[in-house]
Amino acid sequence: MEPMEGHLPLKPEAHASKDIVASPPEVQADTPLADDVEPQQPVSSLPGDPISYVAVALAEPPPPSSSFTIRLPDDLRISWSWPHLLVFLFAAAASLLVVPTVLALVISAYVHKTQLQMQNLFSNPGFLIATQVLWFAVIFLFLYITLGVLRDAPFWWTLGWRKLSLRIGSAGYKPWMFFVSGSGLAIFVALASSRVKNAESAPIEELFKDPHAALLLMAMAVLIAPLVEETVFRGYLYPLFAGKLSNLAAHFGMDSARSVRFGTASGILITGILFGMMHGSQLGWNWGLVSLLTLVGVIFTFARARTGTVLASFLMHLGYNSLIAVTSIVATKGFQSGLPGH
Question: Alpha-carbon distance 106 to 83, whole Å?
Answer without folding.
Answer: 33
